[in-house]
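1st attempt posting a full record on here, be nice pls
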Amino acid sequence: MSSSRLMTSTRMIAGLLAGLMFAIVAVPLGAETVPPSRVGRGFGPVYDAAHEITVTGTIQKVVTKHVKGSPAGMHLLVAGPQGLVDAHVGAFLGKETRTTLHAGTPVELVGAMTSIRGESYLFVRQLTVGDDTVNVRTKHGALLIGHPRHTMPPSRERWMTQVIGGGQ
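the predicted structure (as C-alpha coordinates):
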Protein backbone atom coordinates (compact mmCIF):
# COMPACT_ATOMS: atom_id res chain seq x y z
CA MET A 1 0.00 0.00 0.00
CA SER A 2 2.89 2.34 0.60
CA SER A 3 3.99 1.98 -3.04
CA SER A 4 0.50 3.09 -4.14
CA ARG A 5 0.74 6.14 -1.92
CA LEU A 6 4.25 6.87 -3.26
CA MET A 7 2.99 6.58 -6.87
CA THR A 8 0.10 8.97 -6.14
CA SER A 9 2.46 11.51 -4.55
CA THR A 10 4.89 11.22 -7.47
CA ARG A 11 2.11 11.74 -10.01
CA MET A 12 0.80 14.75 -8.07
CA ILE A 13 4.26 16.33 -7.90
CA ALA A 14 4.85 15.62 -11.59
CA GLY A 15 1.48 17.20 -12.46
CA LEU A 16 2.25 20.31 -10.39
CA LEU A 17 5.69 20.65 -11.99
CA ALA A 18 4.18 20.26 -15.48
CA GLY A 19 1.59 22.94 -14.67
CA LEU A 20 4.29 25.26 -13.35
CA MET A 21 6.41 24.73 -16.48
CA PHE A 22 3.38 25.46 -18.68
CA ALA A 23 2.68 28.66 -16.74
CA ILE A 24 6.30 29.79 -17.13
CA VAL A 25 6.26 29.17 -20.88
CA ALA A 26 2.83 30.74 -21.38
CA VAL A 27 3.70 34.01 -19.63
CA PRO A 28 6.13 36.23 -21.61
CA LEU A 29 9.34 36.75 -19.73
CA GLY A 30 10.28 40.10 -21.30
CA ALA A 31 8.71 43.33 -20.14
CA GLU A 32 6.34 44.86 -22.64
CA THR A 33 6.84 48.45 -23.68
CA VAL A 34 3.98 50.84 -23.07
CA PRO A 35 2.32 51.84 -26.35
CA PRO A 36 2.86 55.50 -27.21
CA SER A 37 0.03 57.64 -25.90
CA ARG A 38 -2.15 59.52 -28.34
CA VAL A 39 -2.87 63.14 -27.74
CA GLY A 40 -6.56 63.50 -27.06
CA ARG A 41 -9.22 60.88 -27.49
CA GLY A 42 -12.72 61.27 -28.73
CA PHE A 43 -14.96 60.99 -31.72
CA GLY A 44 -13.35 63.60 -33.91
CA PRO A 45 -9.87 64.59 -35.00
CA VAL A 46 -7.13 64.91 -32.43
CA TYR A 47 -6.30 68.35 -30.99
CA ASP A 48 -2.63 68.61 -30.00
CA ALA A 49 -2.41 71.48 -27.52
CA ALA A 50 1.35 70.96 -27.16
CA HIS A 51 1.79 72.16 -30.76
CA GLU A 52 -0.43 75.24 -30.79
CA ILE A 53 0.49 78.01 -33.20
CA THR A 54 -0.57 81.62 -33.68
CA VAL A 55 -1.66 82.73 -37.14
CA THR A 56 -2.04 86.42 -37.94
CA GLY A 57 -3.56 87.41 -41.23
CA THR A 58 -6.54 88.67 -43.17
CA ILE A 59 -9.75 86.76 -43.84
CA GLN A 60 -9.99 85.97 -47.55
CA LYS A 61 -13.27 84.07 -47.36
CA VAL A 62 -15.83 82.96 -44.77
CA VAL A 63 -17.20 79.48 -45.52
CA THR A 64 -20.50 78.67 -43.82
CA LYS A 65 -21.71 75.84 -46.06
CA HIS A 66 -20.41 72.39 -45.22
CA VAL A 67 -17.94 70.91 -47.68
CA LYS A 68 -17.98 67.09 -47.75
CA GLY A 69 -14.95 65.65 -45.96
CA SER A 70 -14.18 68.80 -43.95
CA PRO A 71 -15.07 69.47 -40.31
CA ALA A 72 -18.64 70.75 -39.92
CA GLY A 73 -19.09 74.38 -38.96
CA MET A 74 -17.73 77.74 -40.05
CA HIS A 75 -14.29 77.99 -41.67
CA LEU A 76 -12.19 81.09 -42.24
CA LEU A 77 -9.71 81.10 -45.11
CA VAL A 78 -6.97 83.34 -43.73
CA ALA A 79 -4.00 84.66 -45.71
CA GLY A 80 -0.88 85.45 -43.74
CA PRO A 81 2.91 85.02 -43.79
CA GLN A 82 2.51 81.22 -43.68
CA GLY A 83 0.22 81.21 -46.72
CA LEU A 84 -3.51 80.43 -46.90
CA VAL A 85 -4.82 78.63 -43.81
CA ASP A 86 -8.22 76.89 -43.51
CA ALA A 87 -9.23 77.79 -39.95
CA HIS A 88 -12.12 75.83 -38.42
CA VAL A 89 -14.05 77.87 -35.84
CA GLY A 90 -17.03 75.52 -35.47
CA ALA A 91 -20.75 76.17 -35.39
CA PHE A 92 -21.15 77.80 -31.99
CA LEU A 93 -19.89 81.37 -32.44
CA GLY A 94 -22.26 84.03 -31.22
CA LYS A 95 -24.13 86.20 -33.72
CA GLU A 96 -22.16 89.28 -32.66
CA THR A 97 -18.86 87.54 -33.45
CA ARG A 98 -20.12 86.05 -36.74
CA THR A 99 -21.15 89.49 -38.03
CA THR A 100 -17.58 90.82 -37.56
CA LEU A 101 -16.10 88.05 -39.70
CA HIS A 102 -15.93 88.94 -43.41
CA ALA A 103 -13.36 89.16 -46.20
CA GLY A 104 -10.71 91.80 -45.50
CA THR A 105 -10.93 91.60 -41.69
CA PRO A 106 -7.58 91.16 -39.91
CA VAL A 107 -7.60 88.32 -37.34
CA GLU A 108 -5.32 86.52 -34.94
CA LEU A 109 -5.94 82.81 -34.43
CA VAL A 110 -4.48 80.49 -31.82
CA GLY A 111 -4.94 76.78 -32.41
CA ALA A 112 -3.49 73.48 -33.51
CA MET A 113 -3.05 72.15 -37.02
CA THR A 114 -4.57 68.77 -37.83
CA SER A 115 -4.89 66.73 -40.99
CA ILE A 116 -8.14 65.10 -42.14
CA ARG A 117 -8.16 63.00 -45.30
CA GLY A 118 -4.97 64.65 -46.49
CA GLU A 119 -6.20 68.24 -45.94
CA SER A 120 -4.76 70.53 -43.23
CA TYR A 121 -6.99 72.55 -40.92
CA LEU A 122 -6.24 74.93 -38.08
CA PHE A 123 -8.58 74.04 -35.22
CA VAL A 124 -8.96 77.48 -33.66
CA ARG A 125 -8.98 77.63 -29.86
CA GLN A 126 -8.96 81.43 -29.60
CA LEU A 127 -10.06 84.03 -32.15
CA THR A 128 -9.14 87.71 -31.91
CA VAL A 129 -10.81 90.35 -34.10
CA GLY A 130 -9.68 93.87 -33.22
CA ASP A 131 -9.81 94.18 -29.42
CA ASP A 132 -12.31 91.34 -29.08
CA THR A 133 -11.04 87.86 -28.13
CA VAL A 134 -13.35 84.84 -28.22
CA ASN A 135 -12.61 81.36 -26.87
CA VAL A 136 -13.75 78.83 -29.47
CA ARG A 137 -12.42 75.61 -27.87
CA THR A 138 -11.25 74.36 -24.50
CA LYS A 139 -7.53 73.88 -23.95
CA HIS A 140 -8.11 70.23 -24.89
CA GLY A 141 -9.80 71.10 -28.19
CA ALA A 142 -13.49 70.53 -27.40
CA LEU A 143 -15.71 73.17 -29.02
CA LEU A 144 -17.27 75.54 -26.51
CA ILE A 145 -21.04 75.66 -26.59
CA GLY A 146 -22.85 78.69 -25.26
CA HIS A 147 -21.23 82.03 -24.53
CA PRO A 148 -17.54 81.58 -25.43
CA ARG A 149 -16.40 84.90 -23.91
CA HIS A 150 -16.76 83.51 -20.40
CA THR A 151 -14.32 80.97 -19.07
CA MET A 152 -15.79 77.59 -18.30
CA PRO A 153 -15.49 76.16 -14.77
CA PRO A 154 -12.77 73.46 -14.74
CA SER A 155 -15.22 70.71 -13.72
CA ARG A 156 -17.51 71.53 -16.67
CA GLU A 157 -14.54 71.64 -19.06
CA ARG A 158 -13.36 68.19 -17.89
CA TRP A 159 -16.89 66.80 -18.37
CA MET A 160 -17.18 68.27 -21.88
CA THR A 161 -13.74 66.95 -22.80
CA GLN A 162 -14.74 63.44 -21.73
CA VAL A 163 -18.19 63.47 -23.34
CA ILE A 164 -17.52 65.40 -26.54
CA GLY A 165 -13.94 64.27 -27.07
CA GLY A 166 -10.65 65.87 -27.82
CA GLY A 167 -9.30 65.61 -24.26
CA GLN A 168 -6.80 63.33 -22.62
